[in-house]
Write a structure and sequence with these properties.
66 residues, 1 helix
Length: 66
């Protein structure tokens, strides 16, 4: 099992927690407790050109979808 440390992006309306991301401006890190890969960026495991973003949005109020 590989544990990750999500990237958290604060917003005016709440926050986004990027659970899995290979984007350079919000890279997910692999938890230090993970053998061999600990502390490294997720892109080391899946590749730098793999477009991946899974995020959780926590809104403090209702948002409109646009």
């Amino acid at each position: 099992m590989i544990r990750t440390k999500p990237f958290v992006s604060e917003k005016v309306w709440g926050y986004e927690k990027w659970l899995l991301s290979t984007l350079s401006h919000g890279m997910t890190k692999i938890d230090e407790k993970t053998e061999f890969l600990g502390g490294k960026a997720l892109s080391v495991l899946v590749g730098e050109n793999y477009p991946l973003l899974i995020k959780l949005i926590q809104a403090n109020e209702r948002l409109s979808v646009q």
